[in-house]
Amino acid sequence: MNSRQTFGSPMQHARPTPPETRTRALLLRAALIVFVLLPAADLISFAILRLWLHKEYAPTLGFVWAWARSTWWHSTAIDDSWAPMRAALDWLHAHAGGNLYDRLFFVDHVKFQYAPSALLPLRALEALSLDSSDAALNRFDAWVILLNAATCGLIAYLLAGRSDTNARFRWHWAILATLATLTYFPLQRAFVLGQVQVWNNALFALAALAWILDRRLLAGALIGLICLLKPQFLLFILWAVLRREWRFCAGWLGVVVIGGVTSLIVFGLSNHLGYLAVLRALSRTGEAYIANQSINGFLNRLVGTDATPDIWKANDFPVYSPIVYLGTLCTSAVLIGAALLAPLRTRAQSRLFDFLCGALTFTIASPIAWEHHFGIAPVIFLVLVLSLAVCAPSKTRTIALVVLSASYFVTGVWLRGSWMLAGVLATLGLVYWSMFSASVRDPTTGPPAARSRDTLTNPQSPT
User: Fold this and answer.
1) At 56, is the secondary structure helix, strand, or coil?
2) How far is it, in rounded angstroms, from Cα 437 to Cα 387?
3) Exposed/middle/buried for 55, CB within 10 Å: 0-12, 13-18, 19+?
4) What is the pLDDT of residue 460?
5) Which residues contact 215 (CB under 8 A, 6 or more apart)?
6) Backbone φ, ψ for residue 370 (5° rounding)
7) In the prediction, which pLDDT does 264 show?
8) Which residues cross the membrane (predicted)?
9) 8 A C-beta contact, residue 352 and residue 443
């Protein structure tokens, strides 16, 4: 009688789901988000905003098609970066020894916001009599995006192979990561604009790969190359010094010193000092244009420093607001301070999440963070999902996966407003949680059983 009552009783515990089954289900859900949900949302947004409401909308699928055409058939001639760079070089040719920024930025109001060192690649192409047309540069960009996607695929393959749960599916993760990177909105946005940011996004993916392979010198050199093009990652040298990552520092300094000295010789000291004045001016106002997905951009739009933030002003900046300036200064100080100091003396120090946290923080904290600057995010999403894949089932893991999916969605489709900022801030929160949570292990380590007691008690990676 008792046996009949207990057989099939609701009190009987359900058999736990095998890890491989959970990973297979997670892969399927991720594929549905990347290949079904996001394209559907992109098409619906295009139909509503562009066709019905006649508002500006940036379709990701259209960007992917433009990239494919430029790679294999007809290259585009868009010049968001190339035009101001050429204007700067032309001015320097005509005014040897003159101060580029005094005239071009402050008088002519051309939004040339690059450091002089960013002109070195185009100057080298000119000196070598090589094709530096918009079409040629954009075709090169198209192949750089392919390199970026392949790098993310390789990162997925390597990290999945270091986990018992993911190892069987490492090719699945690699293919998913490659295709998800190719169809990621900020990455393709940089391409269709004709942006040098395409190079930075790829350099960051390569730097993350070098970090995973414990090639600290190479990782530092690649981050140094990014700094020569755009200054947001200059804080990485302080980040590395605080962690005593001396090989990273050596690589960073080698590239930045050589590039900086070359730039000083070619363009002169006055132009480099003039660039500091540009940075001061940009930090005072930032940009209110809707594509600026930084806290500064959000505050500018909230305060109303620009009556029409949906419209790009090629020659104007928003009016100065002390609320925006102080708000940007305070939030940037908090974000940067947390990224530099919080992981110290913890198991998170110098781990992959620490590295990714620095990159995402330094981007968000900048007064101007265009949507295409977040083309660094595919690596971060990839590392997060692979880490969550090996976590034991729990409510916290489920919430983290939901937040990760939502963050990927609002950054992978152009929803206007400040949705992308919300997504990257949520992603940054997940990175912090992954750094400090005992239930999430660093994805660069091997299976838990293979780790020694020394690895657990002395988490700092070798320098």
Assistant:
1) coil
2) 11
3) exposed
4) 42
5) none
6) -65, 160
7) 96
8) 26-49, 140-159, 171-187, 219-242, 249-269, 319-340, 352-370, 376-392, 399-415, 421-440
9) yes
Bridge partners (DSSP) of residue 370 are 292
Report how far residue 371's alpha carbon sits from residue 431's, in angstroms, rounded to the nearest whole number: 20
Q: How far is CA 67 from CA 31, 91, 154, 224, 412, in A?
A: 21, 31, 21, 27, 16
Contact 248, 220 (CB under 8 A): yes
Distances (CA, A) of 9 to 5, 14, 16, 68, 334: 7, 11, 17, 58, 54
Sign of the CA dihedral 387, 392, 396, 398? positive
Structure tokens at 342: 């919080």
Give the residues across from 292 on adjacent strands.
370
Question: Residue 16 has what pLDDT?
Answer: 58
Task: Express each pLDDT in 444-462 by its tens digit.
Answer: 776 544 443 333 334 344 3
Q: How far is CA 214 from CA 82, 211, 237, 449, in A?
A: 35, 5, 17, 21
Low-confidence ranges of the chain (pLDDT < 70): 1-17, 350, 446-463
Could you tell me the residue ranges of all domains in the chain? 39-443
**How many other C-beta atoms lie within 10 A of the C-beta of residue 43?**
13
pLDDT score at 173: 97
In this predicted structure, what is the pLDDT of residue 14? 52
**CA gyration radius for the chain?**
24
- Phi, psi (deg, nearest 5) at residue 292: -80, 100
Q: Looking at this protein, which amino acid is placed at residue 173?
A: W
Amino acid code (one letter) for 425: L
DSSP H or E stretch at residue 286: none
> How do residues 43-63 score in pLDDT, each as one tens digit?
998 898 888 877 778 889 999
pLDDT attached to residue 57? 81
Structure tokens at 323: 């609320």
